[in-house]
Design goal:
Aminopeptidase, 4 strands, single chain, 29% helix, two-stranded antiparallel sheet, alpha+beta
Length: 77
């Protein structure tokens, strides 16, 4: 739904502003092209007949590069 996409993108922009980032880490366009999953927390206001997205969490696999005790790089899982 275009309305949900816009709400997610708007919330991502606000999140980026709070973290002082140049651009959002999450966009619907990026989500559609990835294998990540987005979980939404939302509420419905019966009196106003409107839904509000309260927040979201994006989960997925990511390649992490870590350091061992000898400062050698290795790929984590």
């Amino acid at each position: 739904s275009p309305t949900v996409y816009k709400a997610i993108d708007d919330l991502a922009k606000l999140s980026a502003q709070c973290m002082q980032l140049r651009s959002p880490l999450t966009t619907c366009e990026k989500l559609v092209a990835s294998d990540h999953t987005l979980y939404l927390s939302w509420e419905y206001d019966v009196d106003k007949n409107v839904s509000r997205i309260l927040g979201f969490a994006k989960v997925g696999r990511k390649r992490l590069f870590l350091y061992d005790s000898e400062m050698q790089t290795y790929e984590g899982e």
